[in-house]
Design brief:
Helix 1 packs across helix 7 and helix 4 runs parallel beside helix 5. The chain has nine helices and eight strands. The longest helix is centred in the middle third of the chain and has 29 residues. It has an eight-stranded mixed β-sheet, sandwiched between helices. The termini are far apart. Helix 4 links the parallel strand 5 and strand 6. By secondary structure, it is of the alpha/beta class.
Length: 267
Amino acid sequence: MVRVSPVNPPTSELGEAVVTGASEGIGEAFARELAARGYDLLLIARRVERLEGIAADLRSKHGRTIRVLRADLATAEGVNATSHAAFEGGRVPTLLVNNAGFGLVADTLDSDESRLVEMMRLNMEAVMVLSHRFGRAMYCAGRGGIINVASTAAFQACPGFGTYAATKAFVLSFTEALHHELGQRVQVLALCPGYTISGFHRVAGLNESSMRFRPMTAETVVDEALNALRLRRPFRVCGIANYITALAVRVLPRRWVRVIAARLFRN
């Protein structure tokens, strides 16, 4: 089921930002920060009641035009509905934040196959399709930005979290290539947060007490992302400890990295 709130023409000089997975966590933090900076918003998620509450709060605080769309981006219908809402009336958004995604902690053979496929469609296919559609429109308009949310899990294989890590490796690689292809006309960033306070770990089934690093706030992640986008960085690993870890896995023997990751995600 798809539902979009009533449409009003964007009034912000910054244009409209589209944020997927905007009902909580990093997506909600993006919505709140972008509205505070003066963007109009199109917020996407499945929990439309939660979106409506966020939208009402942002309209009251910032006087921005905030639209909401109920859509499941793991389906072609949801992706198409998002594109239709974003481009209707000839509008071209100035920023896309591909944040929607989820993970599952379990060995591959212990996981439900249909959920793994759903994860791949949401974490990879929706990101690619929306980046393609929005990137083409932004490139023709001569301005715009795309932030694709990857993860520090993108830098190594993660036994016990394998499919999720693989989907985020795709996002990182794809986004870095897109950054190069679109050049100076469209800013493109792969955002790689680590352990962040959000609803992600609850859905994934991660034991938060086993996490080795102190969690970051979603607000800090968003601030780092928008600063990196402004500086035209191809990717951003949030937090010094996460950045050092991402560098280390590139030089350590891959077997060591797999063993360390397995201990982390199987605890």
